[in-house]
Amino acid sequence: MNFRVILFIAILFAACTNTRNPSSNPMKAGFTWDNATVYFLLTDRFNDGDASNNYQHSDDNPPAPFRGFMGGDIKGITQKIEDGYFPDLGVNAIWMTPLVEQIRGSVDEGTGNSFGFHGYWTRDWTALDPRFGTREELKEMVQVAHDHKIRILIDVVANHTGPVTDLDTKWPDEWVKTGPRCRYADAQSTIDCTLVENLPDIRTESTDEISLPPFLVEKWKEENRYEREVAELDEWFAETGYPRTAVHYILKWIVDFIVEFGVDGFRVDTVKHTEAYVWTDLWRVARKAYERYKEEHSDPVLDEDSEFYMVGEVYNYFVSGGRQFDYGDQKVDFFDHGFKSLINFDFKSDARSDYETIFSKYDRLLNGPLKGKSVLNYISSHDDGGPYDLNREDPTDAGTKLLLCPGGVQIYYGDETARSLTVEAQGDATLRSFMNWDELKNRPETRSILEHWQKIGKFRNDNPSIGAGRHAQISSDPYVFGRYLEQEGSSNTTVVGLGMQTELKEIPVDTFFRDGTKVRDAYSGATAVVEDKKVRISSSFDIVLLEQPSGL
Question: Model's pTM, two decimal places?
């Protein structure tokens, strides 16, 4: 045991001998975004709860494999919350792809004919896409989620509209530009550009005040809501003092998800492709709207004392580099622009290392350069063609590494059931198959994988020290570590053993639990009492998750 670990354990012991310590006043299930377990799903690909809103593709314009609508919807998510799928997995937040109205037509991206099933091709920010569900269904989903202590994150896009198609006109020139293409050589060629051909870029750099697009005015009038929308915009711009620029119209429409539905946070798309001031402005109005919503709707609000949560997708942000993202010619700290967390592109590579290398690295970074902020770690996602364990060779080990890592974690739908990431399709469509419910129902192996993720996921959710606490290795052989978190006079302590091969296990706990403390192994369900700074448990599993449950 090296000096750093000895010193850290000494500090822990000192904390434990104060008036409040982990044995006498255990903290259970106290939520913090630093310990978030976020379940990320493509709304269209998760669960079909209402067949009546399914989109029927025409025979003369079929989608390429996995590039059309497949029927998943808001109602399907609500069903799975009510069925206990998310609580059983320890999920405390759900992030779904954008729900706003998508383009009506399709485009060929070079990988086949594609539709806006993924939600990132906006036609109208003020409407929900009927293929995903209704406003009433979204309100119900948020309420049901809150009833189950689950927060809702809406995926938001302010960088671009949807592509131009035969059925969808381009937004006016004062709203969007169609070039140049991004080159990623410096900040300007990453921000002032279009991501791909035929994906019009919002003029976020413009300070010119502009009018609503004519096609949107006509659409709103046809839907008998033009006067209401205009009145709300007038009120918004008067209250915020923002100019009537393209991006500030869009920010109003994004914040409406808080005002109307009471969502708990945003996952923000394409952060690095937009000037940082945009996110500062979004955070300012989102936080204010959230506080107002909590004042007016006290019952459905989960976190009275928490601020609105924003996590950003800064593509190729690596936590190893600290807080700043490097454009090449300049660096930007997006944490200073409203983000509590950024999605971490390091973890999928870090997961190839041993447990202690991974866990100690994240403990060091989160309590050093990133102190007060966090990251969202992942092993796979909807647009990352190089995930960890692409072929799902060891999905249980992947779950162990992800769910026990310090920081927030993102489960991409089907990580926990080894959903295939290599279906017969082109490009990122291989990552977007429908959730493998049939395999979960019919294959015992799939159920066994899920059970492993459920046990660790619930342990993580019940014990905020896992993601938010300090980490220290207790033993290298067998590998045992402890986590400790103290907040507002209460504490949470956990000890975990991994790779333990014998039936009768002797787990050293050092000062993490005092002698005489009753503990429970959340993996096997066995209980024991700490004696001589050790816990002895008989279990057929090679993993031990020690906690001190309330009332034990």
Answer: 0.95
